[in-house]
Amino acid sequence: MSLFSHRAHTSVKESSSLATASSSWQKRASNGLSLTHRRAAIPPWLMNTGSLIIMGLLVLLSLSIGVADFSWAGMLQSVISHSANSDSSLMLVSRMPRTIAIILTGVAMAVAGMIIQVVLKNRFVEPSMVGATQSAALGLLVVSLLFPASALIIKMGVATIAAVFGMMLFMLLIHRIPPTDFLMIPLIGIVFGGIIEAVTTFIAYQTESLQMLSVWQFGDFSGVLAGRYELLWLTGGLCILAYIIADKLTIVGLGDNIALNLGISKRQVTWLGVGMVAMMSAVVVVTVGMIPFIGLVVPNIVSRVMGDKLRRSLPAVALLGASAVLLCDIIGRTIRYPFEVPVATVFGVVGTVLFLWLLLRAPSER
Amino acid sequence: MLSPSRPSSTKSDSTHTSPAINDQYSSATGQSHLTQFWAFIANHPKSIAAVILLISMTLFLTLNVNGHWDFALPLRGKKLLALMVVGYAIGVSTLLFQTLTHNPILTPSLLGFDSLYVLLQSLLVFFLGAISFTSINPIAKFTLEIVLMFGASLLLFQLLFAKSSQDLTRLILVGVIFGVLFRSLSALIARLINPDDFVVVQSASYAQFNTVNPQLLGISLFICLISGWFIWRWRYQCDVLMLGKAQATNLGINYQRLAFGLLTVIAVLVATATALVGPVTFFGLLVCALTNRIARHMYHSERLILVSLVAMICLVLGQTVFEQVLSMAGVLSVVIELAGGIVFLLLIFMTQRH
Questions:
Q1: Residues of chain A contacting residue B348, judged by C-beta atoms under 8 Å apart
Q2: pLDDT value at residue B354
Q3: CB–CB of B167 and A192 under 8 A?
Q4: Could you tell me if the ipTM is greater than 0.85?
């Protein structure tokens, strides 16, 4: 199957026989690929090892930063003597769960962004720009108001279903938009998300539950303790599923005709992708709250360096997503020590700057 | 026009005809009355809007007062005045912005201008501290803010239109993201300052129509009068400007000067409206879309008045309904954002269709 080879991939694009029929996503993709050719291409293993090392350093940093007194020596002592002391319990109850939650969230949002970009064949979308996270918050609010005593897993299920409906509505809305007008889709998505958010705010205002809502709308890891984040492991499973179907996703991203030609059911993969993105968004909203722009910025940066073959780029996307959220959380924790700035606020600034850079850098369509 | 002679003449006709035809006739005349009525409304949008505004103003001042006039009237009068100033400022600034950019979808707030004002306010609090921020003479502070706002919006305008004036979608998207960036930066600054200062910033960064800032009322009225005088003098030049930059220059408009003047007025009006009630993203778009629908022609002499009236009606009537009838005082801004967002999507889909 020559399609999976990097070089063959580009040569198909350069022959320009398909270029006229290709969507914007592919144009940007081929652009990214030719970019890799001009630069000395970084081999994926080097990139992934590098990201892994950076992430490891960030994890250590994240574990050692905090208001409470903590020393690695005390921790070591506790491990050697097999007895719990204040350092080890702090580590197990607060620091470790928080760091794991950060990593899982970063991975989930970045991978979800990549999936939704492939499914919608548009570079500039992410879960909060297709109405997924906002619909999840709406569903969550409604179920919390109607059945306040329901279990977390049921709330999450309702949020997932709401997110699927939100994305379906959005896909119905953009159905008529020609794929060449690729910046129109994020624009509509932002306004669409804003409308859902306004409805949610209205309901919350009427029922005096704005405070509950703000917990979901602003991603923040300061409330993460052991026992309050475990649902996030679900996103880890979903990311593994994404890696398993990575090739199918790549083919669907190449266009409807190619997918049909290669025997991939576009409908099936699209629904699977939408379901996964909805579930990841719902879990993240339930446990830590919305963090915008990760799903947009991270996949874009990775595919500029590594191209669009998901089997290769997905690990890098996951690693970079985790590192980005870790870094922003560390910034949020140290910038106004001993107080904390929510990670959503920090990433709101970092993410928008990166997005503006991507937008102003991308050539305008002709 | 409604003419009093028509009904009497049909009545005299009907005396000669059979009952069946009579029925038909009267229903036909009823219909024509209705169409005449609609035609009358369509032909006099300004006077109708003025009448509706007067009614809503009366309702706003008098509903549920229950006899406490000496308390209610000054309070409500101030609020009413503030709402009308805001309506005028947002409506007119959006309309002028659309004239300047030749586009019925663009609005200053969509491109992040009002978030920019909130950011400037946060930055001032950050560097001056809340104590000195609140203790400065409000007029001096407001003047400082407006000067800063003018410089910053000029920069933003340059940045937006130099990079991507050809590609409208990219322009709007970049503007929207700039708005998000300004809001995130204000939120970040709000987190970095003291909790006391935080309250000052917080109150400035959310749209609230039921609590308006009364200190700035005097200077806002002054700004409205001055800007109104300028805009009214420019109304014909604005009509010419709508033909396009090249045409306007050809017809003897000093484009640079007019554009500079318009941008100044827009920046000042956006700052005024945001200072009074906080940022409202889609309100300008909503009222301008409404105005363009009901205006008879595109001349600014009509649309400038009409857009102010429509915006004032939306705010005054909306606030009356939500505050006095439904007793949900804080919801109007949410409802306006909701309706405005839907109008924006409709406008986009309509332009897509063409």
A1: 184, 187-188
A2: 63
A3: no
A4: no
Q: Which A residues in the span 199-218 are in contact with B, Cβ-Cβ below 8 Å?
A: 199, 201-202, 205-206
Q: In the prediction, which pLDDT does B5 show?
A: 38
pLDDT of A136: 92
Q: What is the count of residue pairs from A and B with beta carbons less than 8 Å apart? A: 100
Q: How far A352 CA lies from chain B's nearest CA (Å)? A: 6
For residue B185, the chain A residue with the least C-alpha distance is A349
- pTM for the whole structure: 0.78
Q: Which two tokens stand for residue B120?
A: 């400037």
User: Do residues B176 and A187 lie in contact, with contact meaning Cβ atoms separated by under 8 Å?
Assistant: yes
Neighbours of A57 (CB within 10 A): 12
Which of 3.40.50.150, 3.40.50.1220, 1.10.3470.10, 2.20.25.100 is the CATH number of A22-361? 1.10.3470.10
Which residues from chain B sit within 8 angstroms of residue A346, using beta carbons?
188
Place of tokens 């229950």: B66
In whole angstroms, what is the distance from residue B270 CA to residue B268 CA?
A: 6
Torsion sign, CA atoms B191, B196, B201, B203: positive
Virtual CA dihedral for A130, A155, A221, A52, nearest 10 degrees?
Answer: -70
B214 pLDDT above the threshold of 80: no
Among A1-10, B77-86, B295-304, where is mean pLDDT lowest?
A1-10
Q: Which amino acid is it at B30?
A: G
With contact defined as beta carbons under 8 Å apart, do A176 and B352 qualify?
A: yes
CB A297 within 8 A of CB A355: yes
pLDDT digits (tens, 9 = 90+) for A90-106: 777 778 888 888 899 99
Give the CATH fold of the B44-353 domain.
ABC transporter involved in vitamin B12 uptake, BtuC (1.10.3470)
